[in-house]
TrEMBL record:
Subcellular location: Cell membrane
Transmembrane parts of this sequence: 33-53, 73-94, 175-194, 266-284, 296-319
ATP-binding found in the keyword field: yes
Name of the protein in its database record: ABC transporter ATP-binding protein
Length: 595
């Protein structure tokens, strides 16, 4: 037994489960209530059919044992056939309606989750494994669909059958029924034990599955690195680690669940023995007014009760795992984004104004502060550059300007307006961004460029592609998709797509983060002159390692470990002969040596 199992005793049906079920019902099922009532009606009919069948069987047996009339026997047979034809029709209609209702509910659940996920902060995606998110949207919602649809409908059908047939049997022979149900406490104890264990292990299994999916995603995406570094065996053993963890967990869940069936089989054996023995005694003893037909019917009734009871028990055994899955899905839904529009947020602002960071505090995690009181002013209409050693916070400044993260103190304004008082969409659409991590979708290059402005005309897309020097590649490749995450493109081609997107967006503020680092010098020079035209008269903030590429910037900011250590023009910074001058001469020497 694992530590978790020993220390935790998770209630079978907690307050949280109740709340989750209420949420599921009110959001996704309530509007289908009329149809669910129809289903319930049909299920009741199915239960009544069984009861009527038993009654008919008893009559049929009496005809055989007592009156011996063939006509009566034929009549009984016809009624039994009609009864089962009705049950057959219901067995077709019930799944039809429940499958439709549950798939529709899951469609809406997935739509809501996708919609919700898109609103979450970037930080959520940085702390959550992609496998976990895929799992929520694919397997867990699918499992919930089956659970709320067919599984529950079948369980209700089984419960109704058990109740109606048991009711009939109690009415026919209460003493014999009471004898038969002595095993009930044992079955309840087994169910309780199984459910509790399943709930604990299912939680671990869901987490392990999420990690496993994430590992697969990382291995597939990183296959180039895996191969170059000859790490196939390491990756194989990492994935095999996940595979065997999953096997062990699934074994534990399913073996525990499998305890339910034999315990019910054993119980039913007891019941049959009791009914045959007790019932037989009743027929033999003159003090009971019981005949053979009623005992045979009773036994048949018990057989008819046990099968649905077994299925019902299995359904109840699977409830805890479904509660765990429901809880996971709900948790994604409960994640709240923090970067949202404030009450009264405005869409209009002076996009050409100065961008000012005042006493900005920020850290990605509490234990690693990055900015503690950063002040910077990017003049409107000018080209500003941020330079500094790796990890000094250059990209983070751009992330704060676009509100991918919010500052933890101080404020950022554009044209005097604090950016957190602007509508997030309006703020972000004021920027054309060429970021370091370029996201390319498995579509044509053309569609990838158009992604940032779906309403752009063909002419505009071509112009952007020409300026970014990617038009020739488009002509060569045509509409061919570029592979998952742009795997079929070179780094420079991806970068040119990102630049083309910036040309196409043509927003008033331009953020370039190492925008041309993957290009050869001739291409860089051509694109740079196009970029110069794009940025003319606009506010432009450039992050660059290659200092020669930003020498003509109006203002250069030098960051070091989250602190602004120098600012000025290229010439003044060189004259100051501090960090910038050192970095510049080091790069120049390296470059001269290379030549
Ligand atoms: N999403 C993140 N979560 C946690 N820490 C982060 C995250 N992004 C960056 N950091 C950390 O914040 C610091 C600043 O990172 P940033 O990317 O802003 O540096 P940079 O100056 O742009 O570096 P480079 O020149 O290498 O791109 C680094 O120490 C980095 O490890």
């Amino acid at each position: 037994m694992s530590k978790t199992e020993k220390s935790e005793r998770i209630p079978l049906y907690s307050e949280r489960d109740r709340d989750n079920l209420r949420w599921l019902w009110s959001r996704y099922l309530r509007k289908k209530a009329p149809w669910l009532l129809v289903v319930l009606g049909m299920i009741l009919v199915q239960g009544v059919v069984y009861q009527q069948f038993l009654s008919m069987t008893e009559s049929g047996l009496r005809v055989i044992f007592e009156s011996g009339s063939v006509a009566d026997l034929v009549q009984v047979c016809i009624v039994v056939f009609v009864l089962f034809a009705v049950r057959g029709l219901m067995s077709y209609l019930v799944p039809r309606i429940t499958i439709w209702a549950s798939n529709d509910a899951i469609f809406h659940m997935r739509r809501d989750l996708i919609d919700h996920m898109m609103r979450l902060d970037l930080a959520y995606f940085e702390r959550t494994k992609s496998g976990e998110i895929i799992q929520r949207l694919v397997t867990q919602t699918q499992a919930l669909g089956v659970f709320v649809g067919q599984a529950t409908a079948n369980a209700v059908r089984d419960a109704v059958t058990v109740i109606i047939v048991s009711g009939y049997l109690i009415w026919k022979n209460p003493i014999l029924f009471a004898t038969a149900v002595v095993v009930l406490p044992f079955i309840i104890w087994v169910m309780n034990y199984v459910s509790n264990r399943v709930k604990i292990v299912q939680g671990e299994a869901e987490t392990a599955l999420g990690e496993y999916m994430n590992d697969i995603d990382e291995a597939v995406f990183g296959m180039r690195t895996v191969k170059i570094a000859s790490q196939e065996e390491v990756e194989t053993s990492r994935l095999m680690g996940g595979t065997s963890a999953l096997r062990d967990l699934m074994n534990r869940v399913q073996i525990t669940q499998a305890l339910t069936m034999p315990s019910i089989d054993l119980s039913s054996a007891f019941v049959y023995v009791l009914v045959i023995g007790g019932g037989g005694y009743m027929v033999i003893s003159p003090e009971f007014d019981v005949d053979g037909a009623s005992i045979i019917t009773f036994l048949l009734g018990m057989v008819m009760v046990f099968d649905p009871a077994r299925l019902l028990a299995m359904f109840i055994g699977s409830l805890p795992s479904h509660f765990v899955i429901l809880d996971r899905v709900r948790r994604l839904h409960d994640e709240t984004p923090s970067i949202t529009d404030k009450e009264g947020a405005v869409a209009e602002f002076d996009t050409g104004g100065d961008i000012v960071l005042e006493d900005v505090h920020f850290s990605y995690s509490e234990d690693q502060p990055l900015f503690h009181g950063l002040d910077m002013t990017f003049k409107g209409g000018e080209v500003s550059a941020i330079v500094g050693s790796t990890g000094s916070g250059k990209t983070t400044v751009l992330s704060l300007l676009t509100r991918l993260y919010d500052t933890k103190g101080g404020r950022i304004t554009i044209g005097g307006q604090p950016i957190d008082e602007l509508q997030v969409k309006a703020l972000r659409s004021a920027y054309s961004v060429v970021a370091q991590d370029i996201v390319i979708f498995n579509n044509s290059i053309w569609e990838n460029i158009r992604y940032v402005r779906p309403d752009a005309t063909d002419e505009e897309v071509w112009q952007a592609a020409e300026k970014a020097e990617i038009a020739d590649v488009i002509r060569r490749r045509g509409g061919a998709a570029v592979g998952p995450k742009g795997a079929q493109l070179s780094g420079g081609q991806k970068q040119r797509i990102a630049i083309a997107r910036a040309f196409l967006t043509d927003a008033p503020i331009i953020l370039l983060d190492e925008a041309t680092s993957a290009l050869d010098q001739a291409t860089e020079a051509r694109i740079k002159s196009a970029l110069d035209r794009l940025t003319k008269g606009k506010t432009c903030i450039v992050v660059a390692h290659r200092l020669s590429s930003i020498a003509d910037a109006d203002r250069i900011f030098v960051l070091e470990a989250g602190q602004l250590v120098e600012e000025g023009t290229h010439e003044t910074l060189l004259k100051q002969n501090r960090l910038y001058a050192q970095l510049y001469s080091a790069q120049k020497q390296g470059y001269d040596k290379d030549r």
